[in-house]
Amino acid sequence: MNDAQSERAPNARPLEDLYDGNRFHADLYTDPQIFELEIERIYNQGWVWVAHESEIPDAGDFKTTHVGRTPVIVNRGKDGAVNVLLNRCRHRGATVCDRNQGNARAFTCPYHAWSYGLDGRLIGIPFAEGYAGVLDKANFPLIALKVGVYRGLVFASMNDMVEPLDDFLGDAKPWIDLFLHQGGGFPLKVAGAHKFRFTGNWKIQLENTTDGYHFPFVHRTFVDSLPEETAKGFTAFMREEGPYVRALGNGHSVAVFFPDTVDLSQDDEAPVPPQFEELAAQLSEDYPPERVRWILRAINGAGFNLNLFPNIGLSAAFLRELKPLAVDRTEIRHMALVMDGGPEEANRMRLRIHEKFQGAGGFGSPDDMAAWERVQIGAGASHDDVWIMLNRGLNREVDDGEGHLQAHVTDETGMREAYSMWKRMMVR
Amino acid sequence: MTLASFDQDRLGDLAHARAFIDQEADLLDRLAYDEWLSLWEPSGRYILPIDRDVIDHAGRLNHIYDDGSMRRQRVDRLMSGHAPSASPIMRTVRTIGRVRLLEADTAMLVVASSLLIISFKRQVQTLLAADVTHRLTRGADGLKIAEKLVLLINSDEPLAEMSFLP
Ligand code: FES
Ligand SMILES: [Fe+2]
Fold this sequence. Notes:
The complex is a heterodimer of chains A (428) and B (166). Chain A is of the alpha+beta class and 428 residues long. The longest helix of chain B has 22 residues.
């Protein structure tokens, strides 16, 4: 750790004064030193989501990604276990793999061809006589990160002392379980992703996953493009009593937009919407009526967004990963989810629904991006007393009876949970 | 096909196709989107894939996979003035090159071209490059687009905002 180097300037406001449960200082979006500390204290110390198991189904399958800014390889070993390895050769440091994904039996460094097994073991050094009595291969594997898997979600940590993943996920786990019910009885599979980058701090996107407040404004053109009945649903949650946001601890939170579709395995007896009647007829050829209803009910995903601190969201029908690149630069990956082994026609419908909102060509993501970039520009206004308000709903926040704060879905309870965790990890 | 084997008909087809896609580019740069919509077969597909080397685009996730109804909605959205990303719509200047006729018969022309788009918004100028394939039907009232496939050079890498029609 190079904490000493990235300590804040002597005249800077102390970190603990930057968030008070009501507002936070815009430095959290703009100060490069704070960003460096976030990488060290949040991304390099805690659990970070790195993959969905369906991205690496078979032995030898791999993907490359980052934990914070550190390049890693996520792969499935011959024994079926998931490995997360630093993508950094033990000789002179080159990355040993630069493909986004693929299948490999070993990783060979391009520089001097040291090669490593799927479990990271150093298996080959060319012209090894120069190392006789100098270096023992057994001591130079690719560095392995700690790996935790919960229901297909793969997390890694650079910190050997990190708390068990089960404890970290805590009360978010039942929501992960519920999210999977949109598989209609099939496992969920990642089926492609939209990737985009915006000029703004990563926490702007982190907040957005439980921001019910922005939807009808930023996404007005998306709502306008929907059939009337569906469009009504997308604005009703603004005013209705039922929809809520709940803090789940450890920075996690859930925003429930549609309480009726929290558990998609429960038949809500609602009629099949007209736009899905044709698909329903097709599915009925192969599946019993209850199953067809389940698949169709689930086609827009779960009625909630689950935000897991710091970098993954389980959002209605997709997974949202964020990668902090720099204090004002963030990469987002929106992964479409389909039913693994499920009916092709319904999976295609899921892809079309995902495409319509997400990605650079979608009707939704570009507008989010535009709003977030304007937050970054505004937050950079050089005035030391610019604070970001985070107090919406403090007047109506209640305990849900199990120790979680809860308020209306348009309230900022979920974001406050994330910033409390931010403070816990940052202030030491 | 060698250059020598080009016959007059084929050169005519190429010139015809080329004029058509130049005209399309001009409409898009001028934001004459309603006119642009009229260039299409109603069942035509407008596709920006993510993955490369894909044949079955319907079975994969794309950036854009529009039928007539989605195209109409897309145009309405961009022109509405209510989309933060599209107010203003990016200005674009596009250049089409290396136009080749891949197939030609009495019903259809298939044309491949390169496309460079310079886009501009709020002091940021961006360059986008793509390989484009147009499938054009020949009818009584001229050519119509049955499919337009735009393969961005970085289709499978992170993109920036793209609030215009490539
Ligand atoms: S740096 Fe990898 S083999 Fe030399
Ligand atoms: Fe949004």
